[in-house]
Each structure stands twice: as structure tokens, then as C-alpha cells.
Design goal:
Layout (H helix, E strand, L loop, with lengths): L15 E12 L2 E7 L5 E3 L2 E3 L6 H13 L1 E18 L4 E17 L8 E7 H7 L3 H10 L4
Helix pairs in contact: 2-3
Length: 147
């Protein structure tokens, strides 16, 4: 069974599966995170949904680049979790199956191309406190042995 984080499943909602990939991007004790301004401002691990026909690793590379402007290398899966949530940008309730990777930022090619995203380098301990998603905090803590 894959661990669940976040709000409880609501029996009055119909959830649709949404597969996603997210990265803990570590470099010299710091982590690269994103701040997403809308629909609700929040600090996140870079990543997002896997498009139809797209492999998880291809999606990870694409999402990290779109949200941070960085390329990555050496991605390896470190775990997964489930989250049941409303996604206002898609107007749907989703069961998000979030696969987490540990990767190394390789090169910054420019600013984030995803509107409303800002890339931030933060000490790992600070990031573990400010990430808005409990699942993101858990896997960041595991990656940096903060648990």
C-alpha cells in the first residue's frame, strides 16, 4: 500500500487518477524548490503531471525545466505517495499518485517557463519547514536524513 498524505478521502467526491513526478534537487546541502503563485501561493518540489504517452522520466525532466529553468541528471526514484485533493486549475478532484525522485541539478538554462513559478535555492532544513505539501516535506526529509 502506498502511503497517503494530506486530507482524508471524501465519500461525496469522485476522484480521477492523476500520475505525477516530483524531484528533490540537491546540491551542497541546498535544495531547489519552486514557488507557485496561483491558484494558491505555495512552495513545492518541482514537478507535475505526466502527459498521455509520456514516460515518467521524460515528464520529470520537462516539469523541472518548466518550473525551474534547470536541467537535471542522475534521477533515481526514492518513493511514492498518494494525495486526494481538488485541482482548481483543472476543476477536478484528483487522486494524485506522486512519484518522487532524487536528482542533481545540472545546468540552468534560464528562468522558469511556467507562468507564476519562481525557482529558489533554500537550505534543506528550511525547505523542509516551508514546503506546503506534507508528502513533499516527508520525502525531502528522507533524502536529507532529517526525519
Amino acid at each position: 500500500m502506498i502511503r497517503r498524505f494530506g486530507e482524508a478521502v471524501r465519500s461525496d467526491r469522485r476522484y480521477r487518477m492523476r500520475h505525477g513526478v516530483y524531484a528533490v534537487l540537491a546540491l551542497d546541502g541546498d535544495v531547489l524548490i519552486t514557488h507557485q503563485a496561483e491558484p494558491d501561493p505555495e512552495f513545492q518540489l518541482p514537478g507535475g503531471g505526466i502527459d498521455p504517452g509520456e514516460s515518467p522520466l521524460r515528464a520529470l525532466h520537462r516539469e523541472v525545466y518548466e518550473e525551474t529553468g534547470w536541467t537535471i541528471t542522475g534521477a533515481r526514484r526514492i518513493g511514492a505517495y498518494r494525495r486526494f485533493t481538488y485541482m482548481p486549475e483543472y476543476d477536478k478532484w484528483a487522486e494524485k499518485l506522486c512519484t518522487i525522485y532524487l536528482a542533481r541539478p545540472a545546468r540552468r538554462l534560464g528562468p522558469p517557463s511556467e507562468p507564476g513559478h519562481q525557482a529558489l535555492w533554500v537550505p534543506a532544513r528550511d525547505a523542509a519547514q516551508i514546503l506546503d505539501n506534507e508528502g513533499d516535506r516527508h520525502f525531502l526529509g528522507r533524502a536529507f536524513d532529517l526525519l
